[in-house]
Amino acid sequence: MNFPILSVIVFTPVVAGVILLFFPQDRHDWIRWFALAAATLALLLSLVVFIGYDSAEGGYQFQERAEWIPALGISYFVGVDGMSAPMVLLTGIVIFTGVLISWRLDDRPREFFLFLFILATGVFGVFVSLDLFQLFFFYEIALFPMFLLIAIWGWKVTREYAAMKLTLYLFIGSVIALVGGLVMVFSSGLETFDMLQLQTAGFSTTFQRIWFPFVFFGFAVLAGIFPFHNWSPDGHVAAPTAVSMFHAGVLMKLGAFAALRVGIVLLPEGARFWAPLILVLASINVIYGAFIAMVQTDFKYVIGFSSVSHMGLVLLGFATLNRDGLTGAGLQMFSHGVMTALFFAVVGMVYDRTHTREIPRLGGISKVMPLATVAFIVGGLVSMGMPGLSGFVAEFPIFMGLWRTQPIIAIVVVISIVITAAYIMRIIGKVFFGAMPEEFEGQFGDVLVQDKVALVLLSALLVLIGVYPAVMAPMVASGAEAVLRALGVG
Amino acid sequence: MTFTEFAPERLLAILPESLLFLLAVAMLTLDLVWKPSRRRILGWLAASGVTLILLATLAFGQPPADEPLVLGGMVRWDWLAFAFTILILFTAAVTCLISVNVEGVGNRGDYYGLLLISTMGMVLMASSADLIMLFLAIETTSIPLYVLAGFLKADDKSTESGLKYFLFGAVTTAVMLYGFSLIYGFTGETNLYLIADAMKAAGLSLLLVGGIAVLVLVGFSFKIAAVPFHFWAPDVYEGAPTPVTAYVSTASKVAGFAVLVRVMMLAFPSIDAFWAAILAAMAAATMTLGNVLAIAQSNIKRLLAYSSIAHAGYALIGLVALSVFGVASMMFYLLAYVVTNLAAFAVVILFARAAGSDEIKDYAGLSRRSPWLALVLLIAFLSLAGMPPFAGFVAKVFVFKAAVDSGLIWLAFVGVLNSIIGLYYYLIVLKVVYLYRSEDDHLPVQVPRPYAVALAACTLLILVVGIVSAPWLDWSIGAARSLF
């Protein structure tokens, strides 16, 4: 592979963002079309990577490597495996649909897209990093734009509070993981940040048990692990639509992904030691998140807590440390990313028109926005784990894997599906099919064409993976295989 | 260590000092000769002069392979001194540029004269190898700075600033001088490269050596504004003309670190665990206190004062690691800190010209008034907070790595937790800049050309040092090797 496709994917957004700065501030249309063009390019290239990845061969493909800071053994080293290739595609999809959804944004769109694109570069960068320093580098790049995006363009009532809370939570997690990473590099004695080499370092069992929690939980904060999940619903709710999509759709996976790649893969013995605790915490995520989602009256908070619940399933899958669980977790990351992006997109569309998110005050949306309604129902069915949709493909293996390691937890956690069904049905019934309040009668029309494109794309993906899992499952399975090898059980 | 014979080419060791002196004299002369209207270009002249000196030093001032002691052992011509010299000269050039349009300062030849003399002192501080030379260099640096801090005679705050700076400086310098005199009294030696052996030969008890080290540290801690010798910094920073604040917070601190690292490493190697422990405790206290107190500030100059106290703490982490990489990471940190802080202060100066205020709340609407200026402030503050891809991130990772490599994991944790507090108050300022609106939204902030040049240079360096870090790190490692 001579064309540095991963680098192009990583840097396309940020370069586009910088070019945007030179656009005249008031030509909003130019800015939007240019942003869309850049996002399309990123999406197409990530699709090329996804299709071009050879699952049968496995391992890290599309590798590129260059010296960065040789004195410390730091290099620019990228590549994707079966776990990260779908994540790259997911990021491409969410950035593309995010730009479409933000079409009506009118307050300083130039800066908005700049920050959004810096965020995208950070996210792409983490997913393809094979160097620990580089991973932290991009991880932090993905954090700070969130603050501005939420604080400037967010929901006026809570945006300042939520933005600061989110940023501090995530930064605390990441710097603690950073110390863990530095200790790992030093103790390995290899004088390198190359994760593939660190994997062979053979850290002592005691070392792994001491340092695993720092690294794993440091990153897992971003995945919303209980009891560090608190920033997440607040952040989701306060963020503007595209940022909520990005945030719940991609960023939380970033945390889970880094926790897997740096925590579990590099410190497998630590993972085995701490797995029971992770199982318990992640189960709390699943159950508690679902219950809290059920009692919310704010439409967006429901989705926010449902993300906490679903991310718990991802972490549960990791903590099973077996093939089914890991494969399911990988698929769930993708499936939940698309699904939650879809949810937040619809929530944003509804809020833009009704200016309220209070479920009791909403109703009858299906009459005006039929496509958005259908899309939301598809997303809802996915989140309940309905067969024939991607949620089932992802959650079923997780429960299988869980059953094999911890049957009791598996039984308890399955209850969450019922709760999820309850809160999703409630929303669909009230918000979309309930009687429309008189104040909204004739007040607004259907969604924009751009919105429709985004909704169709997202829903189609959920159905595609549901009916034909073979487009993704073998790839994720090969990624899970690599993790199992690191754990010494493959 | 041998003293080499005098050779004319050895004079190149003090090339920057000599040229700075000439430039300073030229400034004073032109101030007398020129009419006030022409004096506006003095700043440009000083800045380009310093830039030329910087280039000349890069071209001709590189130390020879044996890194000799020259001028009768007064000055060491090594890569450490060279690296610090370049950094100080860069700071001086930028400071001249950002002084040009400042009322009551920018068109005064004596201002630039004092600034350049002080710079000369700092460059000498970086290369001094003898206690006497060192003391003279410190005084040559400090006295002009006291005057500069109080330069705006009509402004009470500036006068207060100058006086406070002077009093604190005088006291701590006296304590340090007492330490110097003890060294000379017990060993009869003043050359840094001979003191350690002389102390051993004289059979001084470690307790006494430790005591002397503490006395000497007092003076150095004042220069770098480390806790508990930081009290002067906020008041002096707030009252002094802003370009002087920028200069004191960067160049003066850098020169302080140059002296600190050289003297401690050379003169007190026998008790390095002792003074490193003291400095480690000071680093932790400095970071924590600086960051915590910065949260409460409502004036941006005071906020930057406390933040710069905190940054001295981070840089100290590199030193207490007591390794080549540790000293290198300290150098790298200072580089990142200097370019970032200068950019931040340049924005502060420009904003104060437009809005007549240094209050953080008045920064509301800056992103609408001047999107580019807001962006520079964003970059500078995020770099200070330690966010990639800016210089501050790599610099922080390096010092933390140095700490971890030397087994100081607790210090690395104190450091990272502090960087969270730092992030908090930097973000609060950025929130005001980007989120809030003001009635003056439609009035752009003027950016005169010298400021545009300075901001472009600093911003570019913030990015280049943060992304293409390898050459700068190699350079720092080369400098650090001079001590080991």
Overall tally of domains of chain B: 2
**Spatial separation of the terminal alpha carbons of chain A:** 28 Å
Name the strands of the widest sheet of chain B in spatial order: 1-2
What portion of the residues of chain A fall into strands of 2 or more residues? Answer: under 5%
Largest sheet of chain B: 2 strands, antiparallel
Summarize the main sheet of chain A.
Answer: 2 strands, antiparallel
Defining key terms:
heterodimer; A: 490 residues; mainly alpha; 19 helices; 2 strands; 3% strand; globular; B: 484 residues; 2 domains; 74% helix
Describe this entry's structure for a reader.
The complex is a heterodimer of chains A (490) and B (484). Chain A is mainly alpha-helical and 490 residues long. Chain A has one domain (5-487). Chain A has helices at 5-20, 28-52, 84-101, 109-128, 132-153, 159-188, 195-198, 205-220, 231-238, 241-264, 268-295, 299-320, 323-354, 365-368, 370-384, 390-405, 407-432, 449-467, 473-487; strands at 61-69, 74-80. In chain A, strand 1 (61-69) and strand 2 form a beta hairpin. Chain B folds into two domains: 1-267; 270-484, no CATH class. In chain B, strands 1-2 form a two-stranded antiparallel ribbon. The radius of gyration of chain B is 21 Å and the shape is globular. Chain B starts with 14 loop residues before the first helix and ends with a helix. The chains are: A mainly alpha (490), B mainly alpha (484). The A-B interface holds A 21, 25, 67-72, 108, 111, 133, 136-138, 140-141, 143-144, 147-148, 151-152, 160, 163-164, 167-168, 171-172, 175-176, 178-179, 182-183, 185-186 and B 367, 371, 375, 382, 385, 387-389, 393-394, 397-398, 400-401, 404-405, 409, 412-413, 416-417, 419-420, 423-424, 427-428, 430-431, 434-435, 469-470, 473-474, 477.
